[in-house]
Design goal:
258 residues
C-alpha cells in the first residue's frame, strides 16, 4: 500500500520522489486507488500555505498564494489537460481533428482563456473558502481525484495508445473501492459528515461531463482526466460553499469526533 502511495505521489505531483528506470507501469496504473490520498496530502500542503501566508499577507494575496502553490505542487499536470481539452472541444472539428489538437504541444486561444479563467476562479473560491473555514480545503483535492477514478473506470479510452488507455485498462474495481473508502473516511473522521451530500452531486456532474465529452471524442483521454480534476475542484469549492450556506440557513451544527 505504501509503495502504491509513492507511485501515485510521483505520478500526480511534482514532489521530489524520483522514478526508477525499470518502474513497473502496471503497478503505477494500479496506484490509482491512492489518488484521493494524494489529494489529501495536497490539501494539507495548501492548508500550510494558507496558514503561513495569512501571517504576513491579507486574504486576497493568501488565496492567490494558495492557487500558485496548487499549480506548483501538481506540476501543472491537470492544467495542461484542461487547456488541451478546451482547445480540442472548442475547435468544434470532427473527432480525429479534435484528438490531434489535444495532442499538439502548442496551446491555442481557447486553452489560454481556460487557464486564465481557471486561475482567477480558483483564487476567488479559495478566498471565500478561507473566510468560511480554511480546513475545508482538505476535502477539495481529495474529492476531485475520486472524480477522476469515476471517469477512468466508467468510460473507454478514445485513443489506441497513451496513458489514458493504460490507466483505464489496468484499473480494477478494487482501486475504485479503495479511493471511495479513503474519501468517505476523511469526511467522517474530520467531522465534516454534513458535507457528504457534496460527493454524489459532484460524482453526477463528473459522470455527465464524461458522457458529453465521450460522445464527442469516442471515449476519454488522459487530458480529459486532467480536465475533470481541474473543473472538479472548482465544482467542489462551489458545492462546499453552497452546502455551508444551506447548513447555516437551516441552523445545522457540524459534529466532530475530536
Amino acid at each position: 500500500m505504501i509503495r502504491k502511495l509513492f507511485y501515485a505521489i510521483r505520478f500526480m505531483t511534482s514532489l521530489p520522489l524520483p522514478w526508477k528506470e525499470n518502474e513497473d507501469l502496471v503497478q503505477v496504473s494500479r496506484s490509482s486507488g491512492m489518488f484521493p490520498m494524494v489529494g489529501l496530502i495536497i490539501g494539507f500542503l495548501l492548508l500550510g500555505i494558507q496558514f503561513l501566508s495569512s501571517l504576513v499577507f491579507g486574504d486576497v494575496t493568501t488565496a492567490l498564494m494558495q492557487t500558485a502553490a496548487w499549480v506548483f505542487i501538481t506540476g501543472g499536470l491537470h492544467l495542461d489537460g484542461l487547456a488541451d481539452t478546451v482547445d480540442g472541444i472548442g475547435s468544434r472539428r470532427d473527432r480525429e481533428r479534435m484528438l490531434e489538437i489535444m495532442k499538439d504541444s502548442h496551446i491555442g486561444a481557447f486553452g489560454v482563456l481556460a487557464l486564465i479563467l481557471q486561475i482567477l476562479l480558483k483564487t476567488a473560491l479559495c478566498y471565500e473558502l478561507n473566510r468560511l473555514d480554511p480546513l475545508l480545503i482538505l476535502l477539495v483535492p481529495l474529492s476531485a481525484r475520486w472524480g477522476q477514478l469515476i471517469v477512468i473506470r466508467a468510460f473507454k479510452p478514445a485513443r489506441k495508445d497513451g496513458m489514458g488507455r493504460f490507466f483505464q485498462e489496468h484499473m480494477r474495481a478494487q482501486e475504485l473501492l479503495i479511493g471511495f473508502m479513503t474519501v468517505l473516511g476523511v469526511y467522517i473522521l474530520s467531522g465534516n459528515s454534513l458535507y457528504l451530500p457534496v460527493l454524489p452531486v459532484h460524482g453526477l456532474i463528473v459522470y455527465l461531463t464524461g458522457v458529453s465529452i465521450s460522445r464527442k471524442l469516442g471515449g476519454l483521454t488522459g487530458d480529459v482526466y486532467g480536465f475533470v480534476c481541474e473543473t472538479g475542484e472548482d465544482i467542489l469549492l462551489l458545492l462546499i460553499l453552497i452546502n455551508a450556506g444551506l447548513m447555516e440557513a437551516f441552523a445545522f451544527q457540524i459534529p466532530s469526533i475530536f
